[in-house]
């Protein structure tokens, strides 16, 4: 009888185990199929049948989180005592061991009882609890779970790591809030590169939980406007796991890093050889402050990546990359291999990425930063035609559409975005861009403000907000908006440049030069910055420096017919005229007219240069022709009218045939 009773108990236990395994599989399958109601129902029954196994409770809490039942998930974790154990570990590591030692020991015993690793389980529970608070925008409570992670604590932990030595840290001995601080500090200090610990933090094909913790802490500080700590933890998240793209996206979208800091961060990532293509993608998604036409560059440098990006785009335009790579277009494939120097071990990945939306967007942004608006518009339009709601590409499309005055495209884009994403900042930014393009600046200002209210760290909206004030000569309000952008986005040069341009418009040339120089130091490859510096030098009567800056602007500008190129050429021609280099001035004016043949002011300046040259018999006719063309395009040009009159008088004085004076006496004697 006893033997048969044992067999029955064994059979029942086996049936129970089989039922629990089946239930877990059903819950996971429901989650995979997005059947959140079914997943919630069966996860609840799984917890009851499984005698409240911590792993089953954790799975149930995850299902509730996916179903957006955040408070219910917290209630579950608190009811089962799992959330409180996270805080107990925090209190114990903060010096309150006497008050919570028994509870902490009970927690460890409870987890060990079910075969759970205490440290790993605590980290996962910490992350899920903090995620629930973050989803409800309770950022202070989120930080209480994660730990404050102040910079003083990080520095202290780094000193502790140095004293312990490179191999003394171990994840099994780290629990609670202070332990999370130590983990994150170690990762920020390069701790994740150690083979012993890195295998615990991240498995192949997954994202490190510690990296996710660092990212969440960065998001919390970002929401609380503590941008210095937010930047620190975003960097820590990326160093902990270079697959944590959200951390990089936050750093780039909010311009938290300067170009030097960005290069240093990407160079410090311990990217494995098989993932070398990822570094290329990360570099091209960064700041476009590197000239493309650089020779003698080496693999891994930003200029090299941007050159390869340009080659990939050229290749994609020449032929379909699939046909080229798989042998149907051998000539195009050979051309691409030559362009890539046949030295890259990720050549296959690069060719495949030539049709990727993010790569095309990076190239469009590069062209936009260099002033090639038509080329940028062509590429970004192809990206949005393939994926109309690629939100990361829409700000670039809107900006270039405003530059090219594409009102219809702006209206249609804004309408679609407001219908699909009414609570997204980029939707109302699109509406503001449309009103700005049709010169309804008050309405544009209203929607720029709404965009910044939805997403405070949206740089394009802040710059557009300032532009809407500057367009109506409201300099004080424009400067306030630009200064806010400078404070929030220290790695972006555009707000500084806009401040310099606004000061120049109000004739405060000293401050204008200071801000333009700061913008140049951040972005040394923007032709617009050198053009503004050249204009400032011109107005300060320093014509030699003006010519140097304007020539630099022309060297950086794309060699296509753009407004920026035409403006820089005209400014350089004015500068040579002031330097009395009339031949050079005439050459530049004629080149400007080849780009914009209907510019009345350029014809007037060219005629004035011919007139100043002083050789009346040789060049006065050309001056008069230029003045006539200018007046034909702009009849109200008073300067051209006056100079035409003087030119005609001079020509008459020179070309009138000589005559002998004969005295005439009307009353002869």
Write the layout of secondary structure elements.
Elements: H1 2-32, H2 36-49, H3 54-66, H4 70-79, H5 82-93, H6 97-113, H7 118-135, H8 139-146, H9 151-164, H10 176-188, H11 195-201, H12 209-223, H13 227-240, H14 245-253, H15 259-268, H16 276-285, H17 302-318, H18 321-325, H19 330-339, H20 347-353, H21 357-369, H22 373-386, H23 394-403, H24 407-420, H25 425-437, H26 441-454, H27 459-470, H28 475-488, H29 494-505, H30 509-522, H31 527-539, H32 543-556, H33 563-578, H34 582-595, H35 600-613, H36 616-633, H37 638-655
Describe the protein in words.
With 669 residues, the protein is mostly helical. The chain is built from 37 helices and no strands. Helix 25 (425-437) packs parallel to helix 27 (459-470), helix 27 (459-470) packs antiparallel against helix 28 (475-488) and helix 30 packs antiparallel against helix 31.
């Amino acid at each position: 009888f006893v033997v048969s009773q044992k067999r029955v108990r064994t059979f029942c236990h086996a049936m129970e185990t089989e039922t629990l395994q089946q239930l877990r599989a059903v819950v996971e399958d429901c989650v995979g199929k997005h059947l959140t109601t079914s997943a919630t129902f069966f996860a609840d029954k799984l917890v009851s049948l499984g005698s409240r196994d911590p792993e089953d409770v954790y799975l149930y809490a995850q299902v509730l989180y996916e179903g957006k039942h955040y408070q219910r998930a917290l209630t579950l974790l608190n009811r089962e005592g799992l959330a409180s154990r996270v805080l107990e570990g925090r209190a114990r590591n903060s010096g309150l061991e006497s008050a919570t030692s028994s509870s902490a020991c009970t927690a460890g015993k409870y987890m060990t009882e079910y075969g759970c690793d205490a440290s790993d389980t605590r980290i996962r529970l910490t992350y899920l609890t903090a995620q629930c608070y973050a989803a409800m925008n309770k950022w202070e409570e989120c930080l209480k779970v994660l730990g404050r992670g102040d910079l003083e604590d990080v520095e202290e932990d780094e000193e502790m790591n140095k004293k312990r030595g490179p191999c003394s840290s171990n994840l099994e001995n780290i629990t609670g809030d202070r332990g999370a601080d130590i983990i994150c500090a170690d990762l920020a200090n390069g701790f994740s590169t150690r083979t012993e610990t890195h295998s615990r933090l991240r498995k192949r094909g997954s994202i490190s939980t510690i990296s996710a913790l660092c990212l969440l802490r960065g998001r919390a500080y970002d929401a609380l406007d503590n941008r210095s700590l937010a930047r620190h933890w975003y960097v820590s998240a990326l160093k902990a796991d270079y697959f944590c793209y959200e951390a990089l996206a936050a750093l780039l979208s909010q311009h938290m890093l300067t170009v030097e800091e960005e290069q240093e961060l990407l160079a410090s990532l311990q990217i494995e050889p098989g993932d070398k293509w990822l570094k290329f993608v990360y570099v091209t998604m960064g700041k476009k402050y590197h000239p493309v036409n650089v020779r003698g560059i080496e693999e891994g440098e930003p200029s090299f990546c941007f050159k390869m990006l340009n080659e990939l785009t050229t290749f994609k335009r020449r032929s379909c990359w699939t046909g080229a790579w798989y042998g149907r277009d051998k000539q195009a494939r050979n051309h691409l291999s030559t362009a890539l120097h046949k030295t890259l071990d990720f050549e296959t990945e690069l060719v495949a990425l030539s049709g990727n939306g993010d790569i095309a967007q990076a190239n469009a942004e590069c062209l936009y930063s260099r002033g090639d608006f038509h080329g940028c518009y062509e590429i970004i339009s192809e990206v949005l035609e393939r994926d109309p709601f690629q939100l990361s590409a829409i700000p670039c499309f809107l900006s270039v559409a405003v530059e090219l005055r594409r009102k219809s495209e702006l209206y249609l884009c804004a309408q679609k975005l407001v219908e699909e994403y009414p609570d997204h900042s980029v939707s109302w930014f699109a509406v503001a861009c449309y009103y700005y393009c049709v010169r309804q600046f008050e309405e544009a200002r209203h929607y720029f403000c709404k965009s910044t209210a939805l997403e405070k760290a949206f740089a394009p909206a802040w710059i557009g907000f300032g532009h809407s004030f500057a367009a109506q000569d409201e300099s004080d309000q424009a400067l306030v908006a630009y200064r806010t952008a400078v404070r929030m986005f220290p790695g972006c040069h555009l707000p500084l440049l806009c401040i310099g341009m606004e000061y120049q418009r109000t004739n405060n040339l000293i401050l204008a030069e200071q801000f333009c120089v700061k913008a140049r130091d951040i972005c040394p490859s923007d032709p617009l910055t050198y053009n503004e510096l050249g204009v400032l030098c011109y107005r300060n009567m320093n014509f030699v420096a003006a010519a140097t800056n304007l020539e630099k602007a022309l060297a950086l500008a794309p060699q296509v017919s753009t407004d920026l190129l035409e403006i820089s050429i005209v400014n350089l021609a004015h500068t040579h005229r002031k330097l009395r280099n009339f031949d050079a001035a005439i050459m530049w004016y004629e080149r400007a007219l080849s780009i914009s043949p209907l510019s009345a002011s350029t014809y007037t300046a060219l005629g004035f240069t011919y007139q100043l040259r002083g050789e009346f018999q040789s060049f006065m006719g050309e001056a008069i022709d230029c003045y006539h063309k200018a007046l034909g395009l702009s009849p109200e040009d008073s300067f051209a009218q006056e100079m035409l009159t003087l030119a005609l008088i001079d020509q008459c004085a020179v070309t009138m045939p000589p005559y002998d004076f004969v005295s005439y006496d009307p009353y002869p004697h």
